Amino acid sequence: MNQDDVGRAVAALRSARRVVAFTGAGVSAESGLATFRGAGGLWEGHRVEEVATPEAFAADPLLVWRFYDQRRVHALAARPNPAHETLSAWQERFPSYMVVTQNVDGLHQGAGSRDVIELHGSLWRLRCTGCGRERDDRTAPLPALPPRCAACGAAERPGVVWFGEALPTEAVMAAKSAVERCDVLLVVGTSAVVYPAAALVELAAAAGATVIEVNPEASALAHLAGVALRGPAGRLLPQVAAGLAGG
Ligand code: BJW
Ligand code: ZN
Fold this sequence. Notes:
- This protein has helices spanning 3-14, 48-51, 54-59, 61-77, 82-89, 107-110, 169-179, 199-206, 233-245; strands at 18-23, 96-101, 116-118, 121-128, 134-136, 156-160, 184-188, 210-214, 227-229.
- It has a six-stranded parallel β-sheet with strand order 3-2-1-7-8-9, sandwiched between helices. Strands 5-4-6 form a three-stranded antiparallel β-sheet.
- Helix 6 links the parallel strand 2 and strand 3 (116-118).
- The chain has two domains: 1-33 and 80-120 and 167-247, Rossmann fold (3-Layer(aba) Sandwich), CATH 3.40.50.1220; 35-77 and 128-160, 2-Layer Sandwich (SIR2/SIRT2 'Small Domain'), CATH 3.30.1600.10.
- It has nine helices and nine strands.
- The chain binds ligand BJW and zinc ion.
- Zinc ion binds at residues 128, 130-131, 133, 149, 151-152, 154.
């Protein structure tokens, strides 16, 4: 990564009117939250793919509940970092701006982002496995057993999207519609291996947007990026913001 790359990102953003930031776990890494893949990505010896599934919850609800409760405890203690803050500040700069996140930690909203699409749900929502009723709950830790639904008595589950489950239709439609019209897609802190979310990057590139990737490592879709900023988002995004503000 060199200053030329930051300069190219600044130039692309300076002429942009419609901007979408597409984020993954890496944007919260500097807030102390673990990413899913790579070093430190295991939880009690399990890969995410083994815990984040409806089958895992059916087979061992207590294990999966514990996984999410620990995530809630960590997320509640975490604070937004300069990457979240920069992505939030840009909502005042661009005529059309949206954050589309795969994250469930709520830190974009914590940094003040108003227009946030959560593709994979939220840690702060619980959903009844019986009647589907949803409720928000920001306490952590929760009891060791999944709570019972006040309406029907069935167990509640985390309001997140597991492997093999459909993403919320409205969120996907809104994200697609923003991405296919944007001038710049910022792809921040995602390995871009989980679909259909990763397809948003392909959609933006096919529609002619400039893709700017911000990630210490090349993602699976780095070849679609016109500009690659290789380093931590909490350091690089403020540099881009300073370049933009500098006229
Ligand atoms: C930094 C940094 C710093 C570090 N700064 N960067 C097409 C092809 C193949 C498979 C499929 C396909 N379409 C669908 C599938 C199946 C499957 C899938 O994608 N599998 C692949 C993994 C092979 N997809 C699904 O099952 C999806 N559902 C579906 O397709 O349904 C179909 C259906 C239709 C109709 C009816 C029924 C079904 C659902 C996917 C749900 C994913 N859920 C999870 C868990 C959410 C809840 C939770 O948080 O626990 O979402 S899995 C996990 O991965 C989580 C994340 O949101 C997601 C993406 O991970 P992310 O954010 O990219 O994190 P990492 O760890 O992978 O990467 C972090 C990055 O940060 C790295 O690149 C680092 O370098 C970087 N980084 N520090 C910037 N400081
Ligand atoms: Zn219920």
